[in-house]
Amino acid sequence: MLSIFPKFYKNFLCKADKCKHSCCKGWEIDIDEETAGKYLAMTGELGAEIRQNIGKNEDSYFFKLTEDERCPFLQKNGLCKIILNIGEENICEICTMHPRFFTMIDDVELCGVGLSCEKTCELLLGDEKDLVFYIEDTEEELSFSEVLAVIGLNLPNEMQEFSLAVNAENINKVLEIMAKTEPIDENWSKELSIMQDMDNVELKAKEYLENSDKNILNKIYKYILYRQLERLVDIDIEALINYAQYSILFIILHTMISKELGESVRRWSEQIEYDTDNVDLILAGV
Ligand code: SF4
């Protein structure tokens, strides 16, 4: 098996208490069987506190979120109480792995860190001019084209870049599809309304594009595509290309309200990439 990672993966380190968007907020966290067993058997005050704060559904145990949708063990200072008390080796699988992802295409593993994470966005948008990958346990670096070649895909250069026309038709189309996705929070719907009501949106989006760094937009485009390549078993490449093209258009529109490209990428990702129904909606709709 060959494992491929983006080069920036080597620099990934969770920002913990320095993160404005802790991933322990807003998402239900399932606890794997082994860790749940550990928690159920744990003695002492922390064991009792953990058991009070976990629930069980048909499939698994999970942390009961607080009223403001935070993990009950996420402290005000942004640090995890379980890690602080009994160490990282005692947190559940999801918390250990997040925001890493591992996808398989035959015997090739495409790995990375998800864009819903603030640190990932900083690294992706960082200094490197292009998105570079490496093969695990080797010094070998690969361009995006070479990664595609490893999985047997030969994609013309123009399909490896953001090239969708920024016009009213495409803007309306992407906003309409996004409006059908399940909102991650109340703010998402508000942000969408602001985008829908924006004056001269086509003109502003064109201006934004003209003044933006195309290398950065293309890095984001390639990384969005990279994460979904495993879907090629059930969808065709054109659908995947459209998914990435319209996602970049949406990120451009969102940046016009957030004024921060990294934040808009992160926001798009947590809304879309972390909900397979939403990914499917976009794949089918564009
Ligand atoms: S979003 Fe990323 S940087 Fe922030 S707490 Fe989660 S893993 Fe760490």
How do the helices and strands follow one another from N- to C-terminus? EEHHEEHHEEHEEHHHHHHHH
Helix tally equals: 13
Q: Helix content range of the residues, please?
A: 40-55%
Distinct compounds present: iron/sulfur cluster
Give the overall average pLDDT: 94
Strand content: 5-15%
Q: Sheet with the most strands?
A: 5 strands, mixed
- Shape type: globular
Number of domains: 3
List how many beta strands DSSP finds: 8
Low-confidence stretches: none
Q: Report how far the terminal alpha carbons are from each other.
A: 34 Å
Radius of gyration: 20 Å
What structural category do the secondary elements indicate?
alpha+beta
- Physical arrangement of strands within the biggest beta sheet: 5-6-1-7-8
What would your notes on this structure say?
With 286 residues, the protein is of the alpha+beta class. It folds into three domains: 2-12 and 98-154, no CATH class; 24-96, no CATH class; 159-285, no CATH class. The protein contains 13 helices and eight strands. It has helices spanning 33-41, 44-52, 81-86, 93-97, 118-124, 144-150, 168-180, 186-197, 201-211, 214-228, 237-258, 261-272, 276-285, and strands at 2-6, 29-31, 54-56, 61-63, 100-105, 108-113, 133-135, 141-142. The strands form two sheets. Strands 5-6-1-7-8 form a five-stranded mixed beta sheet. It has a three-stranded antiparallel beta sheet with strand order 2-4-3. It is globular, with a radius of gyration of 20 Å. The model has no long low-confidence stretch (mean pLDDT 94). The chain binds iron/sulfur cluster.
